[in-house]
Amino acid sequence: MLNPITSSGTEGLITLSDSGLHTPSSAGQDYKHEDMFKHSGGALGAPRGHAHVGRGPDSLTLFDFPSTFPLGPRSFQIPGLGQKGRLCGHQRVDKFAVDGSAVHLAILRCKRVECPTCWTDWAKKTVFGLALLIEATARSEGVRPYAVMMSVPPDEVKEDGWDWENVNTSLFRRGYRRGKDHAGMRGGVVVFHPYRVKKAYQQEFRRSGIKRDIGFWKEIRERVNVGADLCEFVNLSPHLHAIVIGNPKGHSCKDFVVRYRDDEAHVPKELALKDIVAYLFYLITHTGVLTHLKKYKRGVRRQPTHTVRSFGSLFRADAKKLLGPDEYEKLCKEIAELLGMKYENGELSYPDSCEDMATSEEQPIWVSIYKLGSYLNDEKWLSSLSLTQTNFWLAVYRFWRARGRPPDLEDFGVLLRIPDDVKLYREVSGDEADEL
Ligand SMILES: [Zn+2]
């Protein structure tokens, strides 16, 4: 029964989580990674999502652990409903002014998918990459995409007996094959969902006036964030949602269901770009992040991972090639705006994500704190500073040598005094900025 479309050559895994650096066991070394000094805006690079299709030797996927690994209701975490990294939120020296007159602190972010702070950044960047891929394909073909759900018949999904082997065969591969042969799909992007909301809670939520799934998950997220147990609300019930290109046709048989999202007249609904972005974001909010053990050369450690994939004609599709540089740039800007972000010079970032305490008009010229050592070795530079500046930068250097990390905001005024002729610039996080 195996059909060539099921071979790995027609499927791309989009693994956007570079979580290896940020597991608890390695968190203590975070300061050694210059990456950690990038603030949340632009840290992952902009249109990386779409380009990140495929498996490099270092990219981890759901298939890197034993395929017979049994899945239970606690196998998954939902983005934003887990623990933040130990150093997430710390403000640490990341730059100094070339004239020695200013120090700049950036906010460290753990970038964990499960981090209550970092997950939205991950979600937005993931949606950006997926929306870019699907919209570029749609525009280049002059068609609109559709939303679709694919599953083993929902009433027959059992809670037990799931492992990766059958998620792979009875969901992903069967989905691509049925999608192509029976449901009119040429290709698309897929988001894996491990859970469905329990019937009893669906009823409770409806009674309390919450009408749609999007509201159910918002309610669940709020309750879990204040301490409720996710498993109380959901059953393990693996299924897929996809946005696809093709000629939609529903499909239903004893072992599989493909259901397109309809409009009021029960005609598959064509998605506009804003629908794609909104729908993908909603889907991404409760995709499964799987925590499993991963074997490395020097032992085993916990490794969170998750899957979002492209398949069929969208596998290896390249948005820039499909559209050409000008249209590509225009589309990136459109999608960024829909996500409340901005796209400039090939970078995706947040408007006003960085608010310096600077009051003066002129911005200092900044250099990475990692260059401080070589600057201090330069007699000409050192002698151009005032005595208090010289002492300050030597103290920063000594502090770093002693503690193995540059100073945090809390260290100033306690362990390090900032002289009057050195200004402090500091990034302000979104929440803080609102309070100012
Ligand atoms: Zn975090």
List the keywords:
436 residues; alpha+beta; four-stranded mixed β-sheet; 16 strands; disordered N terminus; binds zinc ion
Structural class label: alpha+beta
Tally of DSSP β-strands: 16
The H/E string reads EHHEEEHEHEHHHEEEHEEEHHEEEHHHEH
Mean pLDDT: 78
Give the helix level as a range of percent.
25-40%
What small molecules accompany the polymer chains?
A: zinc ion
Rg estimate, integer Å: 24 Å
Oligomer: single chain
Number of helices: 14
Percent range for β-strand residues:
15-25%
Our measurement of the CA-to-CA distance between the termini, rounded to an integer number of angstroms, reads: 62 Å
The gross shape turns out to be elongated
The main β sheet shows up as: 7 strands, antiparallel
| Uncertain segments | 1-64, 353-359
Q: Write down the domain tally.
A: 2
* Major sheet: arrangement of strands: 1-12-6-7-5-9-8
Summarize the structure.
This protein has 14 helices and 16 strands. It is an alpha+beta fold and 436 residues long.
Tell me what the structure shows:
Helix 3 packs antiparallel against helix 8 and helix 3 crosses helix 10. The chain folds into two domains: 273 residues, no CATH class; 99 residues, no CATH class. The protein has a seven-stranded antiparallel β-sheet with strand order 1-12-6-7-5-9-8, with helices on both faces. A four-stranded mixed β-sheet has the order 15-3-4-16, with no helix packed on it. It has a three-stranded antiparallel β-sheet with strand order 2-10-11, with no helix packed on it. The longest helix has 23 residues. With 436 residues, it is an alpha+beta fold. It contains 14 helices and 16 strands. A hairpin with a 2-residue loop joins strand 10 and strand 11. The N terminus is likely disordered. Helices cover 32% and strands 21% of the residues. It is elongated, with a radius of gyration of 24 Å. It binds zinc ion. Zinc ion binds next to loops.
